[in-house]
Amino acid sequence: MSRRTRRRITPLITVAGAAGAVLLSAGAATAHVRVIGDVIPGKPATLQFRVPSELAEATTVRITVEVPTDLMITSVPKLDGWNQETLPGTGGKGTQLVWTAEQGHEIQPAQSETFQANVGPVPDRYSLTFNTEQTYSNGTSVAWNQPKTGDEEPEFPAPVLVVDPEASPPPGSADGAQQPGTSASAPAPSAGAPSVDAATSAPAAAEESDSGSSGPLIAVIAAGVAVAAGLAVAVLRRRGARDGSHA
């Protein structure tokens, strides 16, 4: 490839790279508490709870995860810098997993931490929901417990793990049902963490964007990347043909 050809293609590749960077930024802006796990119905599994710290002015100091009543916790791996408690469920609720940060190990703004739990046989159904409460150093408490009931993700979605995509979702949620144990209302705050309504406890990232607004943006960026790549290929072919005719 001649030096002139390289100079003409470089701007096109730069445009594609910039579009990819914007795409990554859009994904980061919609981060929420998530549950991840490679699960098979009837088999034990290891679950990971990924928790981002979304408030700019405070750190995350405590995480409380409510486990579905029909899922047994077998063990919880130790996480450096965090104290863990497993509390029995009361009032029809499942077991609670509580992680509290030691001084200096809090989740800093714009950072995240992953908490693990080993569970017994996974029940054979469409999905499992893990209502989660996130407590910040300034006393703000965010309840991630809202079920998805439409095309757009709610402001504080409950972490949901899909177990069997081929199973029939119960009626009521976005996939067909509101999962057992989920509620659109926030649970009562724990001691030392005053309750804050959704308007005052909304993380900065959640206020700026949601999945409904980022979807069209991602589609446009993807189209731009494809066009840029096509133009680059066309320029290469045209230059190759021209060089061949002069040979």
Describe the structure.
Residues 177-215 have a biased composition (Low complexity). The chain crosses the membrane at residues 217-236. This protein is α+β, with helices and mostly antiparallel strands. It folds into two domains: 3-27 and 213-246; 31-205, Uncharacterised protein YcnI-like PF07987, DUF1775 (Immunoglobulin-like, Sandwich). It has helices spanning 3-29, 198-201, 204-208, 211-246; strands at residues 34-36, 45-52, 60-66, 73-75, 82-87, 96-101, 112-119, 127-129, 132-136, 141-144, 160-162. The protein is globular and about 45 Å long. 25% of the residues are buried. Mean pLDDT is 73; it is low at 1-29 and 176-214.
Topology:
Blueprint lengths: L2 H27 L4 E3 L8 E8 L7 E7 L6 E3 L6 E6 L8 E6 L10 E8 L7 E3 L2 E5 L4 E4 L15 E3 L35 H4 L2 H5 L2 H36 L1
Helix pairs in contact: 1-4
**What gross morphology would you assign?**
globular
CATH class of the largest domain: Mainly Beta
Give me the Rg, rounded: 23 Å
What is the name of the CATH superfamily of the largest domain? Uncharacterised protein YcnI-like PF07987, DUF1775
Oligomer: single chain
